[in-house]
Structure to design on (312 residues):
């Protein structure tokens, strides 16, 4: 039995159910040791939360279920290739393996900006469609200095 | 008066307060028409949520405050250049202007992976440190087909 295939099928089922319940066409599943830890569908419009992608919600649920901000040893299954927000969330979470089915081109064909946002993020700031201004102020380094000096900090 | 400077100073104050209360050294403020809409400090470890960056929390709060998933016309002020997760969240939210003070190199000097994750996201999948597998299954396109056929959908 291909365990990847069965969890991907579950992610696609979640994506289909998501559309039926008013969400976007995406689903995600997180496992550890081939056992389900968390699953979610896209809820951007339903929750009025632009960050409520299936993968982000599944990561947040998995972290809650496991009681830690580090999802070491977990695998993420996504009905579609994660967008840059979700991919960076995967890196921050410590997940080291991703399995997916549709890709950013399939998402683009359905009207989603994933592929364009990959392009924007990898551009120089000056070329992006969002405008950026760096303001140098005195004390800008203070939070980092305080962080570095703190012995009790938990690194993430 | 430089309004950008005053909101950036607020973001840096939030970053400092965040460290003092057990969070990471980052703060973010969202405004519309130069008025405060939402603000947040980093809460990754405190909330046990790897996605709880200051910018993501501020975006979620602003969307809740404004009652919409689209933050059109809002400006995001960040004590440090947003990481790729936060930057992609900015694109999804419709925010078109970002002001920041410290940058990804300052974050790297304090031990944060922002710069490395930018590198990873812009690499081909095969070169990344996270492993990827695409699994083609029958019915993978079903969620997108259902989405495309749905006349009542709210595009995001």
């Amino acid at each position: 039995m291909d365990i990847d295939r069965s969890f991907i099928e579950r992610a696609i089922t979640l994506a289909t159910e998501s559309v039926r319940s008013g969400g976007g066409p995406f689903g995600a599943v997180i496992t550890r040791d081939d056992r389900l830890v968390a699953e979610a569908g896209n809820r951007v419009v339903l929750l009025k939360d632009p960050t409520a992608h299936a993968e982000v919600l599944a990561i947040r649920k998995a972290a809650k279920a496991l009681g830690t901000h580090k999802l070491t040893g977990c695998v993420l299954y996504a009905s579609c290739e994660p967008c840059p927000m979700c991919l960076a969330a995967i890196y921050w979470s410590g997940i080291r393996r991703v399995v997916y089915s549709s890709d950013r081109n399939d998402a683009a064909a359905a009207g989603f900006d994933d592929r364009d946002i990959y392009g924007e993020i990898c551009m120089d700031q000056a070329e992006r469609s969002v405008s950026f201004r760096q303001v140098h102020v005195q004390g800008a380094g203070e939070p980092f200095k305080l962080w570095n000096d703190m012995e009790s900090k938990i690194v993430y």
